[in-house]
Structure formats: C-alpha cells, structure tokens
Write a structure and sequence with these properties.
The protein has helices spanning about 5-20, 25-45, 55-60. It is mainly α. The protein has three helices and no strands. The protein has one domain (about 5-65). This is CP12 domain-containing protein.
C-alpha cells in the first residue's frame, strides 16, 4: 500500500470476505490491524504513508524498549 487510507480500505474489504467465509482467525487478525491503523491515523492526521508493524506497535506502546529513541 502507498497510503494508510488504501490499507484501511483493503482491510475493510478483506474483513467482509473473512466474515463471508467464516474465517474467524483471519477476521480477528484483520480487525486488530484495522483498529491499529485507525488509531495511528487519529494520532498522526498529517501523515498519509502506510505505517509498518513497528510504527503501529510503537504508536500504541511508546515506552517499550524497542520504541525508545536516545539522543547522543
């Protein structure tokens, strides 16, 4: 995906497909991802790029060791 909006639309479409197929594990994964994307977009309204998994994780967990940034 090039933008977060494209990724959100794709996930919404895939959620409908997973519901129709009765694929609960895929549905749960996609719903979690969609919630993370929407939360990221809410926190960064000016940012249009499609965030990677680490960016989503650090947005939700800024105090985790892998998300801390140190100045030299």
């Amino acid at each position: 995906m090039k933008t977060i909006d494209e990724h959100i639309k794709k996930d919404e479409s895939e959620i409908q497909e997973a519901k129709a197929q009765g694929n609960d594990s895929k549905l749960h994964h996609l719903e979690d991802e969609l919630n993370s994307l929407k939360e990221y977009k809410e926190h960064h309204p000016e940012d249009k790029h499609d965030p990677n998994a680490l960016e989503l994780f650090c947005d939700a967990n800024p105090d985790e060791p892998e998300c801390l940034v140190y100045d030299d």
